[in-house]
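Bench log, entry 3. Co-assembly request; chain sequences pasted below exactly as received.
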Amino acid sequence: MTIIALGPLDLGIAALLIVALAATVRWQRLGLEGSLLIAAARTVIQLLLIGMVLKSLFAETRLLWIALLALAMLLIAGREVAQRQKRRFLGWWGFGIGTGAMFTSSFTVTLLALVVIIGPTPWYAPQYAIPLLGMMLGNTMTGIALALERLTQEAWRERGTIEARLALGHSAQEAMIPMRRDAIRTGLTPIINSMAAAGIVSLPGMMTGQILGGNPPMTAVGYQILIMFMISAGTGFGTLIAVWIATRRLFDRRQRLRLDRLNTPQ
Amino acid sequence: MNRLRVEQLRTCINPPLTFQVEAGACVTLQGPSGCGKSLLLRALVDLDPNEGEVWLGERARNTTPPTEWRRALGYLAPESRWWLDRVGEHFSHQGETISALFTELGLPTEALDWQVARLSSGERQRCALARMLAVEPCGLLLDEPTANLDPASTQLVERLVMAYIKHHNAPLLWVSHDPEQVQRLAGRALHFNAEGSLQEGPLS
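Structure output for the full assembly:
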């Protein structure tokens, strides 16, 4: 079975829908047409660029190039996590905690899936490695960003409570139990919800793509289950690691709450 | 010997402070708002970064694990904080000692089952004092513990705390704005002067 390739004309018709939407929005004076068109243009440009990168990567499978692309993806995701924090850690920690946690969880889980489960030859075959890593990073990023945001906000808001517990001789870890629990729950809720709703409320994007690409539905289902489990494990462990490091960083060696290590939003 | 000895303690606003509180003695701490009274207490119990050394008896702060130090040196913040629903859940143990503390503070023993949200600010403050004394610290730092209390409760708190330090031979540092209270309680009074250093002051 071969997939029906799309030509410029086909995409042009789809683009007309966006133009029609922009015109309607403008007519309604909603002031959204600008950002709508810019976002649509970004979709085209960014996807064309990554398409060309993947094309040349697929043509010549070299571990170094794949590793470089993976590194770039990791750094961009790390920057995204840091930028979503209202009160992020000052210095390199703001970037480092999220990036380190994502690296540890996403790369380990992706490696496991590639080497042990899927087993393409070579194991770093970009057709498998890049999309898997992309999905892992995308979801882990969201979980870690949500969890860190929640943790720092809660520590800030509950400063009095935390210090009251410290003053009674509780350890920093004990005093942070409620805030850590909240943060981890916040980070994991989206992925737990999407596992619970998979197939009923939504057909996951990857499975839809594979079916459109002409693969038998059961193969697509198999991959989707694999992906869901990988994403959940990656997000879960990534969030746990990030929250663990961040909690430690919120206190110093004398177990004093150090909110001065967070930046103050303007 | 449970003397509280402070040497060259540097908080973020004060010059180095050196002073002592004898075992079993009550020393009051006075000065205008913003002079660093609360910061000094927080530094002693090691909640804020600071330099210098503090001894409680033979125990030196910088070589004592922070949790152990804070259990030894009880600190009562001006505003009490609670993290669970019921008062009693904040006590690591319950028993006759705790019930006795509540009775002496004019609170019924059933108060242990009360919802924290139900307490008045005065009840909350007295419960917080009981919670702190239940840990049985060897020294006390109180930051305006009676600011929200009526005269009758104030008297109960003063009586309980003074009995505690006599019984445990514990040093007590008490931040107070009330000259009459200082006269009633203090063996010595420390005042913050304009430069932010401490000096012995009159007891009124």
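The two ends of chain A are 57 Å apart (CA to CA). The mean pLDDT of chain A is 92.
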